[in-house]
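Quick illustration, no need to memorize.
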Amino acid sequence: MSLFEKRIDELEQSLPHLEPAEVTRWREAGKPFLLVDVRQPEEAAAGTIEGAVNIPRPKLEATIESSMSSPDQPVVVFCGGRGRSQLVADSLRAMGIEAHVLRGGYAAWREAESR
């Protein structure tokens, strides 16, 4: 196992995650949260989750606050699968932001939506 995979596994165990159905419940309940697609713009252009804002990982920490309605607004991040979103959520939490990871990323969302 590479050092990168080891780190992602550690973060997956320690960070709060939401299943796609939980994100849907948050939406239906009107819970205010920011949904962030951390993939590159060309990846997001090929398909993303409705209502998500695309802020690529390299710019996220510096620009996230301009997309938040308040400093205590929860943020749910996703990527294509699991790697980038784990790193982003860890970084946001270190900044004091309540960040959650969409478990399985966009791939899991698409699978859940197709059922």
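The beta strands are 17-18, 34-37, 53-54, 75-78, 99-102.
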